[in-house]
Design goal:
By secondary structure, the chain is an all-alpha fold. The chain has three helices and no strands. Helix 2 packs antiparallel against helix 3. The longest helix has 29 residues. The chain is elongated, with a radius of gyration of 16 Å.
């Protein structure tokens, strides 16, 4: 969720991967739009996977199923 909101932050001048999406929309360039959307999506998936692994590693053995 935070990564998606960070992509929207490009509209207030914060930069980031959202710039590709915003530029793709304003210039009607689907290549930039799709590149930005895929990059943001992959970043969100990798972050979710990494946090899941961290959660599993930090969960005490007594709480695991």
């Amino acid at each position: 969720m935070n990564i998606g909101v960070a992509a929207i932050a490009a509209y207030i001048g914060a930069g980031g991967l959202g710039v590709l999406i915003a530029r793709g929309i304003s210039q009607t360039d689907p290549r930039q739009l799709i590149t930005g959307a895929i990059a943001v999506s992959l970043l969100a998936i990798v972050a979710d996977w990494g946090l899941l692994k961290l959660q599993k590693r930090l969960t005490p053995a007594g709480l695991k199923r």
